[in-house]
Design brief:
Two copies of one chain form a homodimer.
Chain A: E1 4-10, H1 14-25, E2 29-35, H2 39-47, E3 53-54, E4 63-66, H3 73-80, E5 89-92, H4 98-108, E6 115-116, E7 118-120, E8 141-144, H5 152-164, E9 168-171, H6 174-200, H7 205-211, H8 214-219, H9 227-236, H10 238-260, H11 264-282
Parallel strand pairs in A: 1-2, 1-4, 2-3, 4-5, 5-6, 8-9
Antiparallel strand pairs in A: 7-8
Helix pairs in contact in A: 3-4, 6-10
């Protein structure tokens, strides 16, 4: 069984903190070092037993998780590159993968073989160490986006770590990952932000929000997501996201045509097909 | 205090059934007659004590609630018009108001003064008498869309009935109602149906749904709404809905421009403004 004597978590927030707690619970790691920008958050992480010590360097860690906002990856990876212990493995929790891989290649050079890109699919409405939980990843998906340079051993080690957190681990290329998540995650966030912003800017916005109900609340829940994080995701993944936005705009044009000619039968068919697809998904038939 | 000796509910589903239960609980009504298409549903409503009897005519009711799908209003109102008791009041629970008013004017003629249009804003993911609850409308909004012909007494009676259900009653013109709900309700439904349908039709739809998570689930919850009901709403309210769709498409074009030039600062500003507006709404500052 794989075990990591020393684990370094860079960015001890919801994701990084939960990863540390889950590895500890699974008895897969020894000492956990926490590294981050906020001294207060790190002190809290130590008080909560998420990390065993606080440092400014990953030092002699066997496994390093980079769980900062994606825009910081270049500087974070550049800082750890020169001190990487032989055999140490680096992984990440970024929501996009092509940009992360590019940043890692630039920062790590020949050491890129030690970097195994990953993306845990876990909610991020709460943030900070205070929100961390050893159970966060149980039953959730984690996508590994392996590089040609990765050794089978490093892949297995990262896969074992996430599996020990209770996650369902699968693999995709960085390109496939970014295309899939542009569709099922990044586009809906953009659409929800757009709708709330559209209403907020109107003269009668108080009236509109006054009559918005539960359907609107759920539809726009992801518009309460972290603006800085979603800025980074949208900019990093803009080509696939633009492609999705274009396809969706085409769908709306088709719907507009149905509305314009009052084609109730075609509208009902589309609504029924969408509902059926969603019900199949919820029932677990689609996986 | 206003009291209705005999109440007729046409369409004893979630809304109609809950209205009857709430009036009974508030001791605002005597006998409740249930009328509807499904004998099984009416039998269930009688077993559950929602209605006291089942009939095919509203008969000598003092208050009649039309709570069928909106597309049936013309025939329903034509059927009750010739037998309307002097002083009887008719109201409805339709999600659109201009078309309902037009149908009522055509069917009721001079009796239009007795028809007080209303729209209770209550979720409709469940349906049928089985889902009815005396508490459904507590704290929810009900919009009255009064007609110039309505007497103050008939308006007060309908307002008192909904207030007795625990609802917060307000008034708008039918035109204003349809414009507001095209924005805050009908458009989000259309957008959610469109997104699910877009993914369902792709070659890799199983993969896309396989990686869709909690954000997607909430965003698309309203795409599980009833296709027939939403067909009727979209067709009935298509002009305001088309106007909203056009404004939203314009917003998406503006977002596309920001993405194309990689304007992270402008994206973050828009996301932050949207999040702040939503948080103000959730905290009850917008009302």
């Amino acid at each position: 069984m794989i075990r990591f004597d020393r684990v370094a978590v860079i960015g001890v927030g919801l994701i990084g903190g939960s990863f540390a707690l889950a590895l500890k619970q699974a008895r897969l790691c020894g000492h956990v070092v926490g590294i981050g920008r906020s001294a207060a958050n790190l002190a809290l992480a130590k008080d909560m037993g998420i990390v065993d010590s606080v440092a400014t360097q990953a030092g002699d860690a066997d496994l390093i998780l980079v769980a900062t906002p994606v825009a910081q990856f270049a500087s974070v990876l550049a800082a750890i590159a020169p001190r990487l212990k032989p055999g140490a493995i680096v992984t990440d929790a970024g929501s996009t993968k092509r940009d992360v891989v590019a940043a890692a290649r630039a920062a790590l050079g020949a050491r890129i073989s030690r970097f195994v890109p990953a993306h845990p699919i876990a909610g991020a409405e709460q943030s900070g160490a205070a929100a961390a939980s050893a159970e966060l990843f149980r039953g959730r998906r984690v996508v590994l986006a392996p590089l040609p340079e990765n050794s089978p051993e490093s892949l297995q080690a990262v896969e074992a770590a996430w599996a020990a957190c209770g996650a369902r681990v699968s693999r995709m290329s960085p390109e496939e990952h970014d295309a899939v998540f542009a569709a099922v995650s990044h586009l809906p966030h953009l659409l929800a932000y757009a709708l709330v912003h559209e209403f907020a800017g109107r003269d009668n916005s108080a009236q509109l929000f006054g009559y918005a109900a539960g359907g609107f609340r759920d539809f726009t829940r992801i518009a309460s997501s972290h603006p800085e994080m979603w800025r980074d995701i949208c900019v990093a993944n803009r080509e696939p996201l633009l492609a999705e936005l274009e396809r969706y705009a085409g769908k709306l044009r088709a719907l507009r045509a149905l509305l314009e000619r009052g084609d109730g039968a075609a509208l009902e068919k589309l609504f029924a097909e969408a509902r059926a697809a969603r019900e199949r998904w919820l029932s677990g038939e689609v996986e």
